Amino acid sequence: MRSGDGAQAPTISVLLPIYQQAAFVRRALDSLLAQTFADWELLIVDDGSTDGSSALVAPLVDGQRVRFWRLPRNRGLGAALNFALARARGQYIAYLPADDLYFPEHLATLHAALATAPAVVLAYAGVRHHYNREAPGQIPGYPLQLVQVLHRRTSDCWVERGELVTDDLDRLYWARLRMRGAFVGTGCVTCAWSDHPLQHHKLLREPEGGLNRYRAYYGVAEPLRLHTTQGNPIDEVALYARFRERHYPPAPDGLRILLVGELAYNPERVLALAERGHRLYGLWIDEPYWYNTVGPLPFGHVVDLPRKGWQDAIRRLRPDVIYALLNWQAAPLAHAVQCAFPDLPFVWHFKEGPFICLQRGTWPQLVDLYTRADAQVFSSPEMRDWWATVVPEGCDDRPVLVLDGDLPKREWLTGARASRLLSAEDGALHTVVPGRPIGLHPETVAALAAEDIHLHVYGDFTHGQWRDWIARVRELVPRHLHLHGHVHQDRWVTEFSRYDAGWLHVYPSRNGGDLRRAIWDDLNLPARLPLLLAAGLPLIQWDNEGAAVATQTLARALEVGVFFRDAAELRARLQDAALMARLRAHAWERRPQFTFDYHVERLEQVFRQVISRRAARRDGASPARARDARRRLQQ
User: Fold this and answer.
1) Which of 5, 38, 182, 534 has its CA 20 to 30 A from that of 509?
2) What's the rounded Cα separation, in Å, for the pair 370 and 581?
3) CATH topology of domain 248-409
4) Burial (0-12, 13-18, 19+ Cβ within 10 Å), 425
């Protein structure tokens, strides 16, 4: 068989996609050169690496047997493989990811399995995985891996990033091949699938990976459709279309606001600042957790600064104010920026969690962030008062604001409210848990079930991480636990307003009203709180009367809480029609208060205060005059 240029075509085309894998690629290449089956060609596609990977493969490239291309920017696994497939000349296609390797007989045994069975479209080898384990075929819990496979060349293409991002290779390609013929295993372990933190599937799967980690690692600027084998389906294209299409003209007195750190949940909330005419820039942590939202942001309107050379980028930008936020992962970067630019107005907004900073060794930086900031934003009054016990001398008369860190944007309050509760249909009580059922131990759920209180738990991530809990609950009460998929903001109202009430974290506080004894649960306002109130749901929580607990103080003040000490008491309250109607009416009425838009003007005033105070100090104004200027701004 000859190729299009008249040369003898190789039997096997080996596709080697590479991205930031300079430390691995030489091992992979050596394993290919050691193959007992020699009739192959190698097509290397560097998908926008910046770590010198290209230089390491250059000595091997001859333009005939080994060919090489470098894409100008990262386009994703599917695009890199399709680029190579379009240029492959072999009858069969094999894959050699740069971090994996072949054993010498790999290609020979796969070729033998295909060449003698015309009805077979794909052969797969056994594989060594997770350092020292071996599987004779598919690894349990994973799809067939690229390194295991040899298949006939077809006209099929890999699914690319613009259509779907997933670690499920069946959805990306194998399912298409199954429609053409059978798959057969060799039964021989002839390759190795490496186990390291930057594997593609680990960057994608929650909780060690996820959308934000994937976006940060590959520098993806466009919105994505993502659904991994362990995680929630996410369609950023549809979810954020309304924001991307908007135009936010700058105001004459608009500020240049540099966001530093990460945005956690409901990141599009910051567009409320853009709506007021401010220009937004972002400098993000480079190793986010799955819930740490970082740029490039899928809703647009925030200009990213580079992580490499960020000091020069900030000097060129010269922002009017630095707004550093939000969780413990952001503390080191925020502190570095604070130290590098002590002359720039700096506002520190911290949500969670000080105790993690203590454990992780970043406590000194966290204390600096509070004591040196021009203004402090606390996520709850209890958090503010707790910090007063940590730094008793206070921070003189600097501005202080209490604002929950990741409130949603007001757009998510829209949606049709359910016309009827589920409880009206079957007479039982139906409650909802968006996320982890914290404090709802299996025996607690069983006690609730005895009172005919059903638990509806939402979130694919929770289902994956709480398997043992789910199994135990179903063993105890098979009819009272209901599992549902993740619900994005645009469906909050419609989906959750069907329930009688929603669960906050359930735990007995032991602080006795003394904040020095407080734990994180006492200080925290969980991210699910505004979600439940968006749907107008009363909030179920343990009755911690006499303790200092942020959720309790808030729920009592707003009259939106259902407090209980045992399942029978909870049932009585949920069945009190007059009480629940009143709580539901209050929750529906208070909904706007739990959007970021509701508070954005106060936050802007804090920004302008710190800018004014800095200017007054530079101009030599007395402290008294600076205080007077601040009071005028507050008024």
Assistant:
1) 534
2) 42
3) Rossmann fold (3.40.50)
4) exposed
CATH architecture of 12-202: Alpha-Beta Complex (3.90)
Angle at 169 between CA 165 and CA 172, to 5 degrees: 55
Amino acid making up residue 209 = G
pTM above 0.85, yes or no: yes
Residue 66 is classified by DSSP as E
User: Is the bond leading into 435 cis (omega within 30 degrees of zero)?
Assistant: no
Q: Is 287:216 a contact under the CB 8 Å cutoff?
A: yes
| DSSP run (H or E) holding 188 | strand 182-193
What CA–CA distance (Å, rounded) separates 626 from 461? 50
Would you say 11 and 91 are in contact if contact means Cβ atoms under 8 Å apart?
A: yes
Please give the single-letter amino acid code of residue 214.
Y
Strands (E), 221-266: 225-226, 234-235, 256-261
pLDDT digits (tens, 9 = 90+) for 379-408: 999 999 999 998 876 556 889 999 999 999
pLDDT of 632 reads 43
Strands 302-304 and 182-193, sheet pairing: unpaired
Whether 259 contacts 325, CB under 8 Å: yes
CA–CA separation, 476 and 560 (whole Å): 31
**Domain 412-589 CATH class label:** alpha beta
